[in-house]
Amino acid sequence: LLKLLQRDDASGQAHYLVRYSAGSGFPRHPQRTVEECLLVAGDLRIGDVEMRVGDLQVALPGTEHGPLLSRHGALVYVRGVLGQVPTQRADPPDPL
Prior knowledge:
single chain, mainly beta, Jelly Rolls, five-stranded antiparallel beta sheet, four-stranded antiparallel beta sheet, 11 strands
């Protein structure tokens, strides 16, 4: 977690920024609530989808998404439940 922008204590919903260092990410995981990820800077792959700056990915409750991987680092805006903050290191991305 880089910066918490806003949080609703009753629902747990939050708006926050996450910074991924080069080669880091987060494993595939189930969604309990809606989560929106907007790539602000850098590179990010979510599953088989290569995101570009400005791309928005929405994960719905009851689905799984990921793994999330960044080859060169990324800044991501997230709206979702704060307990699901993607801060773990995942396996390094496959070489290009």
